[in-house]
Specification:
593 residues; alpha/beta; TIM Barrel; Substrate Binding Domain Of Dnak, Chain:A, Domain 2; Ubiquitin-like (UB roll); four-stranded mixed sheet; elongated; GH; LPXTG_anchor; cell wall; mannosyl-glycoprotein endo-beta-N-acetylglucosaminidase
Length: 593
């Protein structure tokens, strides 16, 4: 009973300990439930695109960014462009590429492209009378669309308001905005966007036309979330808070303003605090201005130069505003590290070190910084994009890694540099380069893996077993063995009638290599058997007798031994002794009873 009770108690306690595992959702599930889908807007300074050279700048530095570098998770891009008079030809390559390449590429990712322009442009409407007519408003709206949006296949417009217009100005701007709203924005209901961005609470130019806009972008550069709360409340009577989109900025080159929105430590920065506030208070999202200046400071040489950026703050803010968990982002970073380790020639020790840094990171910024570095120059992979990595994780890379490892092993052991070996090296490098790049498609990986596997299969050469006589004449069909590089082989001799194996040339067992191998089995002709010698008659009779050894048959059971055989006496004596001993034992038992 004691044992049964103990077992029952142990089982009962074990069952109780399992209850939390079934009743509590995992951390991963909780993180997924917290994820949102916020708008994220960036202002793309077109004069800093690689296709614009010498436009709107006095700096000699070459531009480095392209619209293809815009991180995943950004869903609205403001093509923010100022082209000084006389520089239109210099700007043309950018706008051509915007139409033919940038636009289609970003549209394929679900990104909306809008064009920003200053509020003053609304007031430039031509009209004949004292005030524009409806027809004049409509004509001007169409002219603006044709000038700023339609030729490049853009998706909307953004009015930049940073002045204090008069009441008469407001009447005109109201008319132009209402005319535009027939073609873009929520009233048009055709998938286009109409935005209004401002840095103040000047309601007059907005309140009468607020229903014409999808989003109000609010510039709160250098400010914390107290200002976010104040400004969103101020605009609440005219636009819902889930259409309110506050934003911050990075340091523009040669700018005298000092905003410090990216001041470390990360969790005390304006960017982190704003992203968190937007997510928790269900605002529309957030934006960042001059994101190509991500990570730059107001100190020299940053403030007076144009250099590449790892976009660390931007990529982290996208994750933060959408509520990605630290654990999920660690998974993205580890996946990226595994696929680039070959192209970056990272040793196993270095990979282990970086994985440990990822695992011990306490926030999103720290996780991303392991791969992206503190800046572009110190990055392991400066183009790493967490949300792009999330998409790439759906592609199975196990066959690719296996093929690369196999090719690496072979290349470390082969001697020489034959055509097949060089083809193997090229195929491996191509796959490594593909996986180490910014992105790839399933079909690209499959094709590269298949090519490398074919090159691997072409390296090992056959082992041929040859069977011949001492004169080199063929005695049996050759046996050819085929296998994978490094696998073991073993050839076997053959039994050939009238021949005896005399010698083996070559290795009868070994491993397949890049060299063809032969094993020669050499046989000699077997000698004919000699006839028995004849009987010689020497004149005497030869008598051959078969000696027969007499063997006594064993006695039959129960048959008495023959006279003189005393072997049975001992058996009788032993039997009588056993009977006597048994009688004594039985007698003693009776006496005791």
């Amino acid at each position: 009973m004691r044992k049964k009770g103990l077992i029952f108690s142990l089982v009962f306690v074990l069952c109780l300990s399992l209850i939390p595992a079934f009743s509590m959702p995992s951390h991963k599930v909780m993180a997924e439930e917290q994820m949102t889908n916020k708008n994220f807007l960036v202002y793309y300074r077109a004069w800093r695109d690689v296709e614009m050279k010498g436009v709107n700048t006095s700096l000699p530095d070459e531009n480095w960014i392209s619209m293809s570098d815009i991180p995943y998770g950004i869903n609205i891009v403001n093509v923010f462009s100022y082209v000084p008079p006389g520089q239109e030809e210099l700007a043309k390559p950018f706008f051509d590429k915007l139409k033919t390449e940038y636009g289609p590429e970003l549209h394929a990712r679900g990104v909306k492209l809008i064009r920003g322009f200053d509020y003053s442009k609304l007031l430039a409407i031509p009209y004949a009378g004292a005030f524009p007519t409806e027809q004049e408003f409509d004509a001007y709206a169409k002219a603006l669309l044709e000038e700023l949006m339609t030729p490049w296949g853009l998706d909307g417009l953004d009015i930049d308001m940073e002045t204090h217009p008069s009441a008469d100005d407001v009447k005109i701007s109201d008319g132009v905005i209402k005319a535009l709203s027939k073609y873009i924005g929520p009233k048009a209901n055709n998938g286009t966007l109409f935005l209004y961005d401002t840095n103040a609470e000047t309601m007059a130019p907005f309140k009468n036309v607020s229903d014409s806009f999808d989003v109000l972008a609010y510039q709160q550069y250098g400010s914390g979330t107290n200002r976010t709360e104040m400004s969103s409340n101020a605009y609440a009577p005219y636009i819902a808070k889930d259409k309110f989109l506050p934003g911050l900025t990075f340091p523009e080159e040669q700018d005298r303003n000092r905003w410090y929105d990216t001041k470390l430590p990360y969790e005390e920065s304006n960017i982190y605090q704003l992203a968190k506030y937007v997510r928790e208070n269900n605002l529309s999202g957030m934006f960042l201005y001059a994101f190509d200046r991500d990570g730059k400071t107001y100190n020299e040489p940053d403030i007076s130069s144009v250099t590449p950026s790892n976009l660390l703050w931007t990529k982290t803010a996208i994750l933060e505003v959408n509520g990605y968990s630290v654990d999920s982002v660690k998974g993205f970073a580890k996946h990226h590290l595994q696929r680039i380790k070959h192209s970056k020639a990272l040793t196993p020790e270095k990979v282990a070190e970086l994985e440990n840094l990822i695992e011990t990171a306490s926030n999103l910024y720290e996780v991303n910084a392991v791969i992206l570095g503190a800046n572009f120059e110190t990055a392991i992979s400066p183009t790493y994009d967490p949300l792009l990595e999330k998409e790439l994780m759906s592609i199975d890379l196990a066959p690719a890694f296996a093929a690369i490892d196999q090719a690496t092993m072979i290349l470390s052991k082969v001697v020489g540099n034959s055509t097949s070996i060089e083809a193997l090296r090229v195929a491996k490098d191509e796959l490594v380069s593909l996986l180490g790049g910014k992105k790839y498609a399933t079909s690209e990986v499959d094709t590269a893996v298949a090519k490398l596997v074919n090159r691997i299969d072409a390296i090992p050469q056959p082992v041929t077993a040859i069977y011949q006589d001492t004169n080199g004449q063929k005695l049996a069909e050759n046996a050819q063995l085929i296998g994978k590089f490094g696998d073991s082989y073993e050839t076997a001799k053959k039994d050939i009638p009238d021949y005896t194996l005399q010698e083996v040339k070559g290795e009868s067992s070994g491993t397949f290599s890049e060299m063809a191998q032969e094993v020669i089995y050499i046989y000699s002709k077997a000698e004919a058997a000699k006839a028995p010698a004849p009987t010689v008659d020497v004149g005497k009779d030869v008598k051959v007798e078969n000696a027969v050894k007499a063997v006594k048959s064993p006695e039959k059971v129960g048959e008495l031994p023959e006279t003189g055989d005393t072997s049975g006496n001992w058996l009788i004596a032993i039997g009588l002794l056993a009977m006597l001993t048994s009688s004594v034992i039985l007698y003693r038992k009776k006496v005791k009873a």
